[in-house]
Amino acid sequence: MTSPESATNRPLGVAMIGYAFMGKAHSNAWRNVASFFDVPAFEQKLLVGRDAAGVEAAAAKYGWAETATDWRSVMDRGDIDIVDICAPGWMHAEIAIAALQAGKHVLVEKPLANTLAEAEAMAAAAQAARAQGVQSMIGFNYRRVPALALARELIADGRVGTVRHIRAAYLQDWLADETAPMSWRLNKETAGSGALGDIASHAIDQVLFLLGDRVTEVSGRLHTFTTRRPGAAGMEDVTVDDAAWATLSLASGAIASVEVSRVATGRKNALSLEIYGDKGSLLFDLENLNELHFVDATAPAREQGFRRILVGEPEHPYLEAWWPQGHIIGWEHTFTHEIRDFLTAISTGTPPSPSFEDGLEVQRILNAIEESAAAKSSTILLARTTASEGA
Amino acid sequence: MTSPESATNRPLGVAMIGYAFMGKAHSNAWRNVASFFDVPAFEQKLLVGRDAAGVEAAAAKYGWAETATDWRSVMDRGDIDIVDICAPGWMHAEIAIAALQAGKHVLVEKPLANTLAEAEAMAAAAQAARAQGVQSMIGFNYRRVPALALARELIADGRVGTVRHIRAAYLQDWLADETAPMSWRLNKETAGSGALGDIASHAIDQVLFLLGDRVTEVSGRLHTFTTRRPGAAGMEDVTVDDAAWATLSLASGAIASVEVSRVATGRKNALSLEIYGDKGSLLFDLENLNELHFVDATAPAREQGFRRILVGEPEHPYLEAWWPQGHIIGWEHTFTHEIRDFLTAISTGTPPSPSFEDGLEVQRILNAIEESAAAKSSTILLARTTASEGA
Amino acid sequence: MTSPESATNRPLGVAMIGYAFMGKAHSNAWRNVASFFDVPAFEQKLLVGRDAAGVEAAAAKYGWAETATDWRSVMDRGDIDIVDICAPGWMHAEIAIAALQAGKHVLVEKPLANTLAEAEAMAAAAQAARAQGVQSMIGFNYRRVPALALARELIADGRVGTVRHIRAAYLQDWLADETAPMSWRLNKETAGSGALGDIASHAIDQVLFLLGDRVTEVSGRLHTFTTRRPGAAGMEDVTVDDAAWATLSLASGAIASVEVSRVATGRKNALSLEIYGDKGSLLFDLENLNELHFVDATAPAREQGFRRILVGEPEHPYLEAWWPQGHIIGWEHTFTHEIRDFLTAISTGTPPSPSFEDGLEVQRILNAIEESAAAKSSTILLARTTASEGA
Amino acid sequence: MTSPESATNRPLGVAMIGYAFMGKAHSNAWRNVASFFDVPAFEQKLLVGRDAAGVEAAAAKYGWAETATDWRSVMDRGDIDIVDICAPGWMHAEIAIAALQAGKHVLVEKPLANTLAEAEAMAAAAQAARAQGVQSMIGFNYRRVPALALARELIADGRVGTVRHIRAAYLQDWLADETAPMSWRLNKETAGSGALGDIASHAIDQVLFLLGDRVTEVSGRLHTFTTRRPGAAGMEDVTVDDAAWATLSLASGAIASVEVSRVATGRKNALSLEIYGDKGSLLFDLENLNELHFVDATAPAREQGFRRILVGEPEHPYLEAWWPQGHIIGWEHTFTHEIRDFLTAISTGTPPSPSFEDGLEVQRILNAIEESAAAKSSTILLARTTASEGA
């Protein structure tokens, strides 16, 4: 077991596992973080992927020095201090636990795992490792959108007063076309769930992050609009949800509604958050992620209104490192900020946030929504046949 | 019983009952409709209210020729052909049924009634009267917002394809201040319900109107954030909801979410509707009621995007009567259009829409939401005490 | 000569001359003003138009008691106290001067007149009449948009500090189609000028109104993109401008740019104003006339941003009379407010604003823009032929 | 003289001169371009700056292998094929001409030079070098905003028809505070001009780029609102413009207005472009650079409206390389795209665009605006003293 604490002053060695969409995004962050932020020295040492040719091409493109095809080989290497897991969800638990036990700091993409049991095991491993000074973090990258970090600050400062309710949605449309093909993402075995795990997880994490609150009760619903799609071998069953709806009760007394969809035609990546407090409110939309809208209800009525804050001032979270005001940053820098905070946490020995436990919390909420949806406790107004006749 | 059919060619005589907010709005519509639309001749004959001085002042201000203090006196008058009921909800049933039985055409403000039993009696009375050529209509005035009438046309024309889901909200903030006083609107006895009956009714009617669909199942939740407010005699209990959430299953297979609130700080009159179909989508917000946003997903991907249609062209519903393009109209003309359609229906003998039966349908849905909310079938994650400690 | 001051307590008698677009809009204001505002008693006595059948139909539709076909007949009538001139611009001077000399209060639509000489004569007549207690006003109705009245208040209160520059535009597109027909509006003889007099006049009046300032120098340019259009007798020459550009120097040191066009495809009625001060700024667009955007640059940088004020609170100019917050009003009520202020001025004996002198001031500025445009003092970069080759 | 053509297959060697704001932005582009685009192999070999310690720190941070303190030393190095000039404008001519003569491909930041004479010499040098296969390019990076590249495509495809007029503005507010300090940017000696050269240059380049047109005549105005600012040695004279206004005649017959300001409070980086054609129009704002608004005036009137195209589809320029739809990119990638196109041009031997001649063209237009402004040909309405009294 390597011990980062005892490491000499050599740069931290980083290994990344997986090089698809998330691997590309994380690599970008590793490649650029030190050009904008003061972070401890590190090296992009090793990229791991099953296909030797593929991983070599990716390493060349994304800036990794070496490659490997078996993630297990990483665990024995004394020159690797950090493991960044961008592999599919069903592999998270095994890799993360092994890495933590080998004394590596671990960053893992969301969702924490595909099953609650795995997530619990991971949280336990993280807790044990933390006692040894080994850090871990789950990649809810939207916590590092500057506008959302600012939103959290404004809420914590009391600028919206007591939050009454939150209206959260995450709307996309890449499955709106019913002829879009079957994929592993649409199969419960491989994906765990559909829009719920993929994007409701982000929306729910934001609720927890922004309010620093906990969920006490949930009520939910899932729906699949297109139940069969063309696969490699003809039409196949889609076994995950296209859309989900939930209401969450929070310990503070606030209520959150969550609505997510992959068939919301015209919405491309619309994580929208509306936070209504008794002294003010906040609005956010990921498609315009450099903006936060804020109304201060303590201002004179004559001058009240949602103000569009272009989050690009040195006074805003993370922004001092970037460009002059009004020169907007892109989606990918949520990861740059995440890596920055992760590296800072490692160097200061402060456990980073969000923790695996935070990831487990989200997982439990998602699970409860699935249970609630399965219980199907709605009030029936019309028998289906009657309704169809009526329509 | 008067018989409008047998009426000579004299103008239709109109009586209006009630002269508060809705009375002011309806009066404005009666006063102006003939200046913009070709409607059968009518006269603003009679305004009815309990306070003699008050009703006389209102009649002078709003353009009514005479006044009366007892609505029952209207029923015997042979020169009154139309009764427009703007009295409080608990009076609707008695007045409307009496008027219909007296052979008067009846327009009644929403909600149809405070109880389901009353609403059912009203629908039965309307059906009986209709067989005699006596017309009736419920005032879901937002069906007459030109942008929403256009939305319905576009949906009917197939421009959004099959609707998958609808996201409806009606957000206001006039109760955000917890020191705002108690009123009859916050008492279940007098108001029936809170945000649910007052504004969710509009949102739900729009779902039915836009899709021409029926609701088969509902699941809902109600919440009161401020449970006691200062009244005439000290602090009093608020017995209606401040906010409500529901999901509705539609006979077509579509799903609608509905969220309403009177404590959504910064939202003044935000009825927002988002309709997601497989070929396109529509967005609307009542605070910008002259606009409809439409995305056509059959256009080349390179050129797709929500287009802001400024609904002010002669080609748009109701608009030929008004001003040149881009000269926006106000909220009050939803009533002008409503009266126009009501008068046209009377003159052509075509039953107007929405009918009392449509109003009853909405009432049933609201009732089902209350039942579902009372059943409280959520999944419990944390015991309250644990949660509070954790928070 | 009638003397309004000595009038008994009978209602003021109003005559309106002209019943086209502006006549329809003014009638609407007269018909409704007393239902919303406390104004002195008046009667819509007389509508004047050259075509007997046409004016009778209009009077019936718009609420005028009598009709006449010769405007001169109005001058002798002792029961007419107010003349509202909605006739074409070339008739303004003759009618207005006659009416003022007959002791009638006069409201005249903008532009004041088609020529500077006429405008000067009108201003002189207004001044003379004013000394006799006879009031006059020019109908720059956008001074009565509540959001713009609020803008003026905020500027006067110092909320934007010293204004440095203003960016004003009025963009429409009803002439974008080059096959749109010739009309009197496109002929210099009848219309005076094109976009300049029609819509730049509004933009310039707003600059003067908002800042309470005067123009010292102008530089301008006019252009006609479609120089021939189909008329009754084949193709005819368009002799007015389609678009105009100007910069104005103000006595305060501020600078205003003005850009107007009738060929700005997609812009329907977009009077947009941007006022930049050293402590704040304001934005307005007539297509969303219930909104004013305001940034307060003295707020902490972290919280700054243009706030969208939905101008619908009782605290806002004119709004207490209307509907609850967030229930927007339409374009036509700029006239309702104008009539209200005009009637109030008459009853209190205070000269109303904007005066004929204010109208003359705008006329002088428009004239100076035409002169500057004719002087054509630009710097030549390329000979036309060279340029065309290069392109 | 090195000859890139004869270079062996070794990667292209890049030297960058200057490491302030633009150096940081260009470095970012060099560091990342190969991770997203297929470009010829290159190396970030050398960073040049006058301060040895400063340049070393910058090189380490931004990814450059070596450093140098004298830009002249670059010219003799056979391993340097490309020189990227991010030094101040007054140094551009000398460095660029030397580099071109040494056979290096040259990318130079805008503006091309501080004087017209220098710009002309640079264009001549570029022309001579081009004949030798040595490429050059000026960094009008906004040509590489995907939304603006799309706008150009749509215009070229005829989607807006014949362009009648363009409304261009570039508004910032970093000088709105009159106590902001004096700097080299506010001194004509060092900066050439103020807002004109700095940001009007971008706006004018866009007009030329989007339309593929040339300017034939200009009329302009410059103004300095704050004429003295606190410097190192007390109050100093500001000798450049804070704001500028111009109208441009284009060879095609179109007219463009340009307005730029550094004192437009609340505007942070608002390059806004409005292109009005007879078949459609386009709107763009750099503060939301992932969006393009387009109205198609050939669509049915009922469905027309500006559509917000979220420029993030694989069908859009440059976007296939980036993230899934709706995941927005930042301002800095205008440079990434610029470097990509520059490298591609070098590898294919096609002269890149915009050329030094394009930069010279913009410079000539800026010069003509200054001349026109100096000629001061406005029409005087009021003597200043009169005006002040009147105000």
UniProtKB/TrEMBL annotation, chains A, B, C, D:
InterPro entries per the UniProt record, alphabetical: Gfo/Idh/MocA-like_OxRdtase_N, Gfo/Idh/MocA_oxidrdct_glycsds, GFO_IDH_MocA-like_dom, NAD(P)-bd_dom_sf
Pfam families reported for this sequence: GFO_IDH_MocA, GFO_IDH_MocA_C3
Q: What is this protein called?
A: Gfo/Idh/MocA family oxidoreductase
What positions does the domain Gfo/Idh/MocA-like oxidoreductase N-terminal occupy?
Answer: 13-130
Top-level lineage group: Bacteria
UniProt KW keywords:
NAD, Oxidoreductase
Instruction: Name the residues that span the membrane.
Output: none
Domain GFO/IDH/MocA-like oxidoreductase, chain residue ranges per copy: 150-282
Record flagged with keyword Oxidoreductase:
yes
User: Which Gene3D superfamilies does this entry report, sorted A to Z?
Assistant: Dihydrodipicolinate Reductase, domain 2, NAD(P)-binding Rossmann-like Domain
Q: Does the keyword Methyltransferase apply?
A: no
